[in-house]
């Protein structure tokens, strides 16, 4: 099986299904850790509907979809925050394809997209319980840094210079 990664409209049915899977997983992980329960279905629907992903549309953003053996398997998104800074977001792979190299490919594709948008630096935030994500970012050359936002769910912030060879 092989990986392919390509841009996808943020509002396509494929993007919507992957956003739902992503949000369900990270929300359930948070609630299970902090409250011992899964996300309330009404809250899940409200939050999914409230975050359209429109910031991941050209000309200042891009949503990428990874396919493994032709099946939609994950996403990464990038959006410009200013002329030099892009934010990496929505990095997700279905559990069944984790450990097959797709996450690094998605992040590198997002870095290429950010360079194409003119960015020279990528930033991101993540939570403490997403240890796999933090390990991935460190392995790919991201350095933990001071907070760059006040998101109530952000606990770790990372940055990486996007040179031609990074």
Automatic annotation (TrEMBL):
SUPFAM superfamilies: Acyl-CoA N-acyltransferases (Nat). It comes from the Bacteria. InterPro entries: Acyl_CoA_acyltransferase (IPR016181), Bact_Acetyltransf (IPR050832), GNAT_dom (IPR000182). The keyword Acyltransferase applies. Keywords: Acyltransferase, Transferase. Residues 17-163 form the N-acetyltransferase domain. This is GNAT family N-acetyltransferase. It comes from Streptomyces parvulus.
């Amino acid at each position: 099986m092989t990986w392919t990664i390509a841009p996808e409209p943020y509002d396509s049915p494929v993007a919507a299904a992957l956003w739902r899977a992503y949000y369900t997983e990270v929300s359930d992980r948070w609630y299970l850790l902090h409250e011992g329960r899964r996300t309330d279905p009404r809250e899940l629907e409200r939050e999914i509907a409230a975050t359209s992903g429109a910031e991941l549309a050209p000309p200042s953003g891009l949503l990428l979809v990874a396919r493994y053996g032709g099946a939609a398997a994950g996403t990464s998104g990038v959006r410009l925050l200013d002329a030099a800074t892009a934010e990496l977001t929505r990095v997700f792979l279905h559990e069944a394809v984790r450990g097959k190299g797709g996450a690094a490919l998605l992040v590198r594709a997002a870095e290429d997209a950010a360079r194409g948008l003119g960015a020279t630096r990528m930033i991101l935030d993540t939570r403490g319980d997403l240890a796999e994500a933090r390990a991935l970012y460190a392995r790919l050359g991201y350095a933990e840094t001071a907070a760059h936002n006040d998101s109530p769910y952000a606990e770790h912030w990372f940055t990486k210079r996007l040179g031609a060879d990074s």
